[in-house]
Structure formats: structure tokens, C-alpha cells
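Support case: zinc ion complex. Customer-provided input:
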Amino acid sequence: MRIVLAVLLFVLQSLWLSAAYADVKGVRLWHAPESSRLVFDLNQASEHKIFTLSSPDRLVIDIYGARLNASMDDLPMKTGPVKKIRSGMRNKTDLRIVLDLAHKVDPKSFQLKPNKKYGHRLVVDLYHQVKVPQGKITPLKISKPVFEVKDTLKNKRDIIVAIDAGHGGEDPGAIGHGGVREKKVVLAIAKKLEKLLKKEKGFKPYLVRKGDYYIGLRDRTKHARKANADLFISIHADAFSSPKASGGSVFALSQKSATSEAARWLADKENASDLIGGVGGLSLDDKEDLLAGVLLDLSMTASLSISLELGGKVLGSMGKIGRLHKRHVEQAGFAVLKSPDIPSVLVETGFLSNPSEARKLKGSNYQNKMAKAIFKGIKGYFQTSPPVGTYLASIKGGSNKKSNTITRYTISAGDTLSVIAQRHATSMAKLKSLNGLKSSSIRVGQVIKVPAS
Ligand SMILES: [Zn+2]
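Agent response - structure generated as follows:
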């Protein structure tokens, strides 16, 4: 009896002790282009408070009934707003963390419950109020003629492809055979795909995640919408409990999720207003709710059928470089695929839990092959079905016409004969002879003949 009591007392005591103090077991810091994220790993949930102080700018984080049991020496502070991080105890019970800041930030904090990868976490997001240089900055190159051509090429725009490398930052994604991390593999493939699209005339890539930081799933699609993307492609690598699972797959949104997502968007006024200019340029604001619902449904249905067709092309070219997990485009309710107005696909490039696939996916050689396969699928789809008004649409239409067809062109401000010639794939001399011009001077409003491209 006595022993039982002693054990009980010991258990109670240790319970009381662990309840009394929350241990901060780890501190992590990640930098994204618009914010930095500080994460405290805790062994239990704990109340906290944050506030800022100025001159000099500081952020104070008080975690009640906690103590620091981790090192903060190796946090990456060369970029981002945090210059220095200090800690101390307050009232003998509370942990105070002080960040010395390079400039003012908008801080937001919240707690996260344990999940598969992490335990209790306190997250402090520091939104930059001023632009902070993130590593190397490449100066904006504006070569004048090219800029002018782009500017006046209103009816021949590029197809914008938003490339989303899954996971990032504190979310490593799948951790595969030999410790290979999904977030790293997929960012490498995304960057290679970006390079390929950059080189291809008529395409313009937009990398959603550019480095090792986390972006919320809904934010990823928001970034794509802001970039006016024609396509959203999310790149991942799978893991499964069995090391035997292998092969790539491509996903589009399921019909059921698409329908409920349309309803959700409609219900959410803020999101619906986000769509203005998205659904074929139609505003949902000034339409009746019912009509808006129909439009949204149509848009979602159109997006979905493009996603399925394009996904099929990507899957087809992936099948030429490696195994496929499934021979058809699968459909699931992934959050990143839920843009009603942007065709979206998710590519699982292979299984990191499969030793031989993990080895391949880790290497630059196979990453290149994978990027090329995805690129071929995208290009193949848009060559046969280019969006209206794009460069690809213009060359597709042109190939059916005789090359000596003539159309008329009205000179607008900033036009020069050489730019017009470039744009219509002809020479200044040809334009002059076609129009009987003696010099190359033109005036605004003047109508000239140009070869139809
Ligand atoms: Zn993933």
C-alpha cells in the first residue's frame, strides 16, 4: 500500500511538474519574401502574449509558465528582420523572448496543435513593412525594344504557368528513403521547369515558392491568381508505408470537391470579390446570386475539363521517362487544386519511400528528365488548345492561313516601323514597299497594311 501511495505521489508530482512548466524544445526561423516565421516547439500548449517596442524596434514574446530548453544560436538571421534574439525569465515563471529588429514588422501569433510531424507549436509570423532583400537580387533588366514589343503586343500575350513546389520551411513534406526531403526535391524540379518555360516562346513561368519557406495552401492559389496564371501546377513526391509503391501520378480536383468549392466561394463574399476579372473577365459583384452561381459552376467545370486533359498530356510524357502509379489522371480534393477559375493539376513525381525512386529523384539528372516531361505535357496541351489572345493562339491560327494574307494595323503612340515589323515577323523594307512608304516615319492613327501572322 505504502509503495502504491509513493508511486502515486511520484506520478502526481511529475504530472504537476510537467503541467507547471512548458518546455520550449526547439526554436526555428524561416524567411519568406513577405514575412519571416518563428516557430517554438513546446511539449504542451501554453498561453502567450506578444507586443512591439520601438526605438529601437523590438518584438517581445512572453510565454507563460515556460522555460527555454533549446539553443537559439544557429537561427538564420543574415536575411530577414531579426537581428538578434535574446531570452530571459520573468517573475521566475515566464519565458521572455526579445527580438531585436532591423525594422518595424506586423507580428501575428497563433498556436498549433500536434500533428503527424510536430507537437504543440507557437508560431509568430513577422510581416515585413518594408521590402527586405532576400539573398541575391538580380537587377531588373529593361532592354527597350523588347519592352516596347511586349507592351504593344496586347493581343499576343504569354501563357502564364504558376509552378508550385509543395511544402517548404517547417513542412518538409514526405521524408523518404535515406532522409531525402520532398520539399527539396520538388523545389529543384520546379526551378528546372521554370527554366524550360522561360526559354520557350509564348510561355511565362511564375514560381510560387522560391525558397525554403512555407506558404499556406490557399495562399498558393492566391499567388497564382495575382500572377494571372493560365495554369497552376503543384509538384510533389509521394511516400507510402510500403517501400514497394512506385511511379508518378497526376491529380485534378474531384467533381464533388469542385461543386462544393463553387458553393464555398459563392458563400464567401471576400473570395467571390477576389474572382472579379477571373471568370472570363466577368464581375460576380453586379450579377444576381443565381447567375453568379451558374457562372462559377461553368468556370469550375471548364477549368476541370482543361485540368483533366492537360493532366493527361503530362501523365503521358511522364510515362515515357519512368513508371506510372496510375495510367489515368486521378481526382481528389486537394486544397491547392480548388481555384474555380484556374485549371490546376498536382503532379506526384514518384515515391520517396521507394529506395530506387528516392535515389533517382534526389539526382539532378532525373529531376531534369522529370521537369522536361512535365514541360512537354504542358506545351503539348497548349499547342493544341491555346487560350484566346495568346502568342500560341496567334501562331496556331497563322499556320492555317496563307503567309501573304494582309491585314490592317492602326499606328498607336510609341509604335515604330521596326517594332511593327518585328511583331509581324517581317522586315522594315517589306513594310515600306507594301505601303509605298518613302521613309520610315509614321504617325499615330495612320493605318498601314501588314502581313497577317
Ligand atoms: Zn507533397
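The longest strand covers residues 22-31.

Case will auto-close in a few days if no follow-up is received.
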